[in-house]
Design brief:
The complex is a heterodimer of chains A (258) and B (328). Chain A has 258 residues and is of the alpha/beta class. Chain A contains ten helices and ten strands. Chain B has 328 residues and is mainly α. Chain B starts with 18 loop residues before the first helix and ends in an 11-residue tail after the last helix. The chains are: A alpha/beta (258), B mainly alpha (328). Chains A and B meet through helix 2, helix 3, helix 4, helix 5 and helix 6 of A and helix 7, helix 8, helix 9 and helix 10 of B.
């Protein structure tokens, strides 16, 4: 069953067509990737999915319901969480407070509860803390919970972002270049973590990534786009051998490297 | 990518820049200081004259207003240049209801809360989607609109305002002397501190901070930023409205000229001067606001100039406000 279905998605900025007639779907319980050369429109697709951009045409169906052009917070409440390409932590707040932001949409205490510190409010606060600590434990940085987020190492700041996304209790997790800026060891841990999120928490994963090694290792389904259009789809082997992909992507990247 | 180094201090080594403030970090020392200050505040009317009481009552009044605006500016990070409008809504609600309709003072408070909420929603609803600089201009306009409406309506007494607002009584005890009002405003200020503190350390307080730090990230975490900002706006409006009720009762007369743009700026100044988002800072800001012009009364008309210079110096050397930032 498809958890996420994108149909004929189109997005243009002032006449520039960023995404054209894009179709793809993500199966429930799978790890899927969206790849493509720089400027292919990958992050734009993510921004359409999460409501930050309003697509001009097409439909996005998530968990059986249309979410096209809904506001981001509503989409998160429906169960789609994301991380950002450039870290977007609440820098001055502690690690735990950062993760607690994810629980906001799953809790309800308001001003009166806060002022009177009612029993329900205190129970809810304890619940938030406990769940967020378990998220931090899952990504392996529980002992840093009371530090200010900006004081953590880059790799650990990334983990705070994942813990924060997990705290929204998502069905689908979108990771925007999760391996960017990580060293070799950290990348190995990332592959491990992505698999654990799917296997232990039953969360479907869609990621955008430049690191081909990582993409080929973790993903079960790869969608390749270039100039906002889908050029190939399949498992790692199919995609690697697709002449159009080699031409549009791998070949060109080799040139760049050389 | 190691632009953020790993040798930053851990949370156990929380440091304050100043020496005496380090002493304040211990919970016990804080309690001592707070109790001494509370005792001084409580017994002040027994040892001082009416002038001091009048000034101190004014201090508590500004503490409440500044704490109210602090929820909007400090917690939620929204620049509001028309806060006096909410204070006017409260004052006029009490003024009109007691003098025209003979309603008991205490019953005008819920009415003022209701109208403050309405005013908060009316101004906040359509404008909170704007980014901060536009919001500042809209709130400035709103403040002026409220004042001009009060100036031109018959029910608000036009330019001369309302006079003869009844002084309230509580269980048969008439609150009329300045020492009575001193205690009333002291209680209000304490209540404002308590509510601010509780809100700051709650789910709602955190949501304000998320929105203030990074709106898009907050929205991505499932926080409805417009609703959260509106919440801050409305709670700030209630603080201002309730303060306005008691202001009207104390002065027994109100006029549109009390609620000028200058008043809004003054309240904002208290918040920024002391340190946005920090309760002790905002209280110090309110003290500075009221006490400075009184202490330098001898300087005559040039005291405002001195006041301005002092403020510039404070802002140059402490752009985050007088109260120090907690660092970890």
């Amino acid at each position: 069953m498809a958890l996420l279905k994108v149909e004929n998605l189109g997005l243009s900025f002032a006449g520039l067509q960023v995404i054209k007639e894009l179709n793809f779907s993500v199966e429930k319980g799978s790890i899927a990737s969206l790849i493509g050369p720089n400027g292919a429109g990958k992050t734009s697709v993510f921004n359409c999915l999460t409501g930050f951009y309003k697509p001009n045409s097409g439909q996005i169906i998530f968990d059986g319901k249309g979410i096209t052009r809904k506001r981001p917070y509503k989409i998160t409440r429906r169960g789609m969480a994301r991380t950002f390409q450039n870290l977007r932590l609440f820098k001055k707040m502690t690690v735990l407070e950062n993760v607690m932001s994810g629980m906001h949409c799953r809790t309800s205490a308001g001003a009166i509860g806060a002022i009177l510190r009612t029993g329900a409010q205190r129970r809810e606060e304890a619940e938030i803390k406990e769940f967020c600590e378990s998220c931090l434990d899952f990504v392996g940085i529980l002992d840093e919970k009371d530090r200010t987020a900006s004081n953590l190492s880059y790799g650990h700041q990334r983990r705070v972002e994942w813990a924060r996304a997990l705290a929204t209790r998502p069905k689908l997790l979108l990771l925007d270049e999760p391996a960017a800026g990580l060293n070799f060891d950290e990348k190995q841990q990332l592959i491990e973590l992505i698999k654990r999120i799917r296997d232990e928490l039953n969360i479907t994963i869609l990621l955008i990534e430049h690191d081909m090694g990582l993409v080929m290792k973790v993903s079960e389904m790869i969608t390749v786009i270039d100039y906002g259009q889908k050029i190939a789809q399949g498992n790692a082997e199919d995609v690697q051998n697709d002449p159009r992909v080699i031409e549009a992507y791998l070949g060109r990247e080799e040139d760049e490297v050389a | 990518m190691d632009r953020i180094d790993a040798k930053a201090p851990t949370s156990a080594e929380v440091t304050h820049p100043g020496g005496p403030l380090r002493w304040l970090e211990s919970q016990k020392n804080r309690l001592i200081v707070l109790s001494v200050l509370a005792l001084m505040a409580m017994f002040l009317p027994l040892i001082s004259n009416n002038y001091v009481l009048e000034v101190m009552t004014n201090v508590w009044f500004y503490v409440m207003l500044c704490l109210g605006l602090n929820i909007v500016v400090g917690y939620a990070g929204l620049l509001d240049l028309g806060y006096a409008a909410f204070f006017a809504v409260g004052a006029y609600t009490t003024g009109i209801l007691t003098s025209h309709f003979g309603v008991n003072f205490w019953l005008t408070i819920p009415a003022a809360v209701f109208f403050s909420i309405c005013a908060g929603v009316i101004i906040g609803g359509p404008t909170l989607r704007l980014r901060s600089d536009y919001l500042a201009i809209v709130t400035l306009g709103f403040g002026e609109i409220v004042r001009i409406i009060a100036r031109n309506l018959e029910i608000t007494g036009g330019a001369s305002g309302l006079i003869g607002i009844e002084k309230p009584s509580l269980f048969g005890f008439e609150i009329s002397q300045i020492s009575h009002f001193y205690y009333v405003f002291l209680v209000l200020a304490c209540l404002a501190c308590f509510v601010s503190y509780r809100l700051q350390h709650s789910r709602l307080g955190r949501a304000w901070q998320y929105v203030r730090e990074d709106e898009d990230a907050a929205e991505a975490m499932g926080i409805d930023r417009v609703a959260i900002k509106l919440y801050a706006y409305v709670i700030g409006a209630i603080f201002g409205g309730v303060a306005g009720c008691f202001f009207a009762a104390k002065m027994t007369a109100i006029s549109p000229e009390t609620f000028t743009f200058q008043q809004s700026v003054l309240i904002l100044l208290g918040v920024v001067l002391g340190g946005m988002g920090k309760i002790p800072g905002v209280i110090i800001g309110a003290f500075a606001l009221v006490l400075f012009p009184e202490v330098f009364r001898d300087l005559g008309s040039s005291r405002i100039l001195v006041f301005a210079i002092v403020m510039l110096v404070i802002m140059l050397y402490r752009p985050e406000g007088i109260w120090p930032e907690k660092k970890s």
